[in-house]
Amino acid sequence: MEPMFLPGVENNPQPSAYLDSIRMMQASGAEYPQIWHMFAFRAEATTHLARFTQEMLREPGPLSPGVRELIAAYTSARNHCPF
């Protein structure tokens, strides 16, 4: 995986569930959302963003969660960003 544009963030994670997830994905060689580095860097500052993301993608709405995930994946692919 390519390094992100914020090496100070990527190289200074704090202990958290996100750091655990990053390490697990790195050990398996799998790609993962690089925003996890931001979450691991300042978990307390990203709590609202994580909650917002879950709400937008998975709570009841006019589009099914699967369609919302597909839109997010398509948008990420168009932006050359792993989803």
UniProtKB/TrEMBL annotation:
Keywords: Oxidoreductase, Peroxidase. InterPro entries: AhpD-like. GO terms for molecular function: peroxidase activity. This is Peroxidase.
